[in-house]
Write a structure and sequence with these properties.
alpha+beta; 780 residues; 6-stranded antiparallel sheet
Length: 780
């Protein structure tokens, strides 16, 4: 039986919800702040399961807000006018929605022309017994582009593609073509190119089947799902950046990770798999120290749980590998290293605790009420039910007992895609949300233990809302240049999907040992990135490391030092993202929307407001062509030279231990002069590089803190810089964490500028002794 809401006869207001009543159901409209409007369909004879409604609501965190609308009824439609220039029309006959801003249609409307045989209603639900399947269809234009959907493969524009929306363990995926991958984020942004406007669409449905962005038909997009609830949000904004920020505020601001997680950390399955794992770990740290490589710690892959029978048993350390792991971890902590432990939600049938956990009822259940068993890494397994509060409490107690009490700093949720294949299971229809619930369990466990500190949680899989609890990465990529290239696009897509704290396994995780050139190029690309981790697995048992190629070691060491030297800039961008939801990394086409010469396939990107990042993703590439966005001049540090925007230049790309990037005119770029391990973010010696612009004033906020206290407690410093062609102004806007040691900030002018009073290009001051500075500058 097909169900649609049409022949709408009346509109009623239920508190702050507007309901359009049709023959067999209604369409409701509500507002959730930050320009996010929620549309929901309810049918008289369709009962949506409460657990699915709760799973849907878990995907966002904002609360409904009041909003007033002027209502006009015509013979054909109901018209709501709100927020001065927003108009929402609902057609009576078909329930078609049309959303306008300033008289420009941003979403909905009739599909195609009247001569086309296309869907008439925006939602059609097919009911088959007690199950049902719904499909949204909305009008699109031939010139439209679409961005988002999380870590989907391929180029950033998703137009004319269809994507499966379930989470998949995608070892060795093709970063251009594979689908699905690890995350299923049902949010995308439509660029209406003929109007040069954007609209965000978010479908918080736990069991979306597919998102089709013009592949099925050039006239409409479609989002299909099982079991409901049938709901979507239309998210407005003046720019793509604002829409991403508004979506992120709707689904939850990203949890700010601890400072050390932005530094270099070691990782490889090949450290923990062998029986001499303890010695391999110690040797790794000894080599980083010997080779003058700052290192914050290690991601412990699951080999520490691998028993002598070859199976991995959650929480049970292999004591033949680690005879006294408490003492081992305590010693690493005293040396200043932070350890994150890999943990998996699947409990193998051979696990010594399996029967006890089953008796307690903590597993996902099958249709027979018994623990459901699915194939998993190592054999059959059942999965902890993170929708069960008692199971969550038990899981958290195990994290405390086996990790936190031994000095564990981080929890790495892995193999958590929950690839259930039996569609009759209740949990099948909310499996996309499962890894977010798992991340929330770890996050909350950390908060119970130390309420004022930031949890360090990683999750390979997830959907909308994951960013409230966890960082992520692009999973088990391949050791090839193709993956290096398309991983850059995947990262930019994650940024546009509200997940800013991402990274890629440098050198590639899966496949042969990366070539020397690939390892260096991956390290170059990671200098301006929120995660610098070389992670690997290969059958030979040899980890990828900075010293894998002796000739490459000086370059990779230099690149790690470069990453640390830019940490004041990177970390300040991260804090800004955590507080404002503004993406830290942006496609050039979105950072400079008025420059129509920029292609959305341009691999280069803006990191923060001032750095144009140029990754090299082809083998034997000695030069690369870089298009410089119009409206600014651009400084190339490698040549100490400015170039005009609006043109392409050919730049050399040697492998010499430096990253490839340009700096935008007007930049305020803080650089750490004495990079070292990240004990706190009270930078002892910083040079703030200043590139004044003749055209406009620029601003940047430099943040400082202890690297681990929650930002909401306000225990941080913020220095606001304002740079113009005539002056540099610095205001100590917030000062909650004085340094106990003298510090030095050097202001350094570029582009022929000097300080007016002494004609010098540098000025030094102590940030703890100066509340504000205003210095005049002049161009020589």
């Amino acid at each position: 039986m097909k169900l649609t809401v049409d022949n709408i006869s009346s509109l009623v207001r239920d508190k702050d919800t507007y309901r359009f009543l049709g023959e067999v159901g209604n369409i409701s409209l509500s507002y959730f702040g930050n320009k996010a409007f929620r549309f929901a369909w309810e049918f008289d004879d369709l009962n949506i399961r409460q657990d699915l409604i709760k799973a849907s609501e878990f995907m966002y965190s904002a609360k409904q807000e009041a909003f007033e609308a002027n209502i006009k009824e015509t013979q054909e439609s109901f018209e709501l006018n709100t927020f001065n220039d927003i108009q929402i029309n609902i057609e009576k006959q078909t329930g078609v929605i049309s959303l306008y801003k300033a008289n420009v249609l941003l979403h909905g409307g009739d599909i195609g022309s009247k001569d086309l045989v296309v869907p008439e209603n925006p939602l059609r639900v097919i009911k088959n017994g007690t199950s049902f399947y719904g499909k949204f269809n909305f009008s699109i234009e031939a010139e439209d582009s679409f961005y988002g959907l999380g870590d989907k493969a391929g180029y950033p524009d998703r137009k004319n593609k269809r994507f499966q929306m379930f989470n998949r363990d995608a070892l060795g995926y093709d970063a251009e073509l594979s689908d699905p991958l690890y995350k299923s984020v049902p949010f995308f942004i439509r660029h209406i190119k003929k109007e040069d406007k954007y609209i965000g669409l978010f479908f918080p449905q736990p069991c979306i089947d597919a998102v089709d962005l013009g592949k099925e038909s050039p006239y409409y997009l479609s989002v299909s799902s099982f079991e409901g609830p049938f709901v979507f949000f239309a998210i407005l904004g003046e720019s793509l950046e604002e829409i991403v920020a508004n979506y992120t505020k709707l689904t939850g601001l990203p949890a700010m990770p601890p400072l050390y997680s932005f530094g270099y950390l070691g990782s490889s399955m090949n450290y923990l798999e062998p029986m001499d794992a303890e010695q391999r770990v110690l040797e790794f740290f000894e080599k980083t120290e010997k080779n003058d490589i700052p290192c914050e710690g290690m991601y412990f892959s699951s080999g520490y749980l691998k028993a002598n029978d070859g199976k991995r048993y959650a929480f049970l350390w292999n004591k033949d590998k680690f005879s006294d792991y408490k003492s081992f971890l305590e010693k690493l902590k005293k040396r200043g290293y932070h350890i994150m432990f890999n943990i998996k939600p699947g409990i193998l049938l051979t696990h010594p605790w399996y029967e006890d956990i089953a008796k307690k009822g903590y597993f996902i259940k099958g249709t027979d009420g018994k623990p459901y068993v699915e194939y998993y890494w190592g054999g059959g397994a059942s999965f902890i039910d993170f929708y069960n509060k008692e199971a969550v409490k038990w899981w958290q107690s195990m994290l405390n007992k086996h990790y936190f009490d031994y000095g564990c700093d981080g929890v790495w949720n892995d193999n958590n895609e929950l690839e259930l294949e039996d569609s009759e299971l209740l949990d099948y229809h909310k499996r996309a949300v499962y890894p977010v619930k798992m991340a929330a369990a770890a996050y909350d466990a950390f908060k119970y233990a130390e309420p004022d500190k930031r949890p360090w949680v990683y999750s390979r899989s997830g959907t909308s809302g994951l960013q409230r609890y966890s960082r992520t990465w692009t999973g088990d990529n391949c050791s090839d240049f193709k993956s290096l290239k398309f991983n850059q696009y995947m990262g930019l897509s994650l940024a546009m999907s509200g997940m800013p704290f991402y990274g890629h396994d440098i050198g590639g995780f899966f496949g042969n040992m990366p070539e020397e050139e690939l390892l260096i190029r991956g390290s170059e690309a990671a200098v301006f990135q929120m995660r610098f981790v070389i992670h690997s697995w290969n059958e030979e048992g040899v980890p990828t490391e900075p010293w894998t190629y002796p000739d490459a070691l000086p370059y990779i060491r230099s690149l790690i030092h470069k990453h640390y030297s830019f940490m004041p800039y990177i970390y300040s961008c991260a804090i800004n993202t955590a507080l404002s939801a503004e993406p830290a990394e942006k496609m050039l086409v979105h950072a400079f929307p008025n420059d129509k010469a920029i292609s959305d396939k341009d691999l280069n990107s803006m990191f923060g407001p001032f750095v144009l990042k140029v990754p090299v993703t082809k083998a034997k590439q000695t030069h690369t062509s870089v298009y410089l966005p119009n409206g600014y001049s651009w400084y190339l540090p490698r040549e100490n030279k400015y170039y005009n925007g609006g043109e392409s230049i050919d730049i050399p790309t040697p492998m010499d231990g430096d990253a490839h990037y340009l700096i935008r005119e007007g930049a305020i770029l803080p650089v750490w002069d004495r990079p070292a391990n990240l004990k706190n973010a009270l930078w002892d010696e910083v040079t703030v590089q200043l590139f004044p612009s003749q055209k406009e004033e620029s601003r940047f906020s430099l943040y400082e803190d202890d690297g681990e206290t929650e930002l909401q407690l306000g225990k941080y410093n913020r220095f606001d810089f304002v740079l113009s062609k005539d002056s540099i102004k610095i205001n100590r806007a917030k000062y909650a964490l004085p340094s106990s040691k003298p510090r030095k900030v050097r202001l350094k002018l570029y582009g022929g500028y000097v300080f007016a009073d002494n004609k010098a290009s540098e000025y030094i001051y102590d940030p703890d002794k100066t509340e504000g500075i205003e210095l005049q500058i002049t161009n020589t």
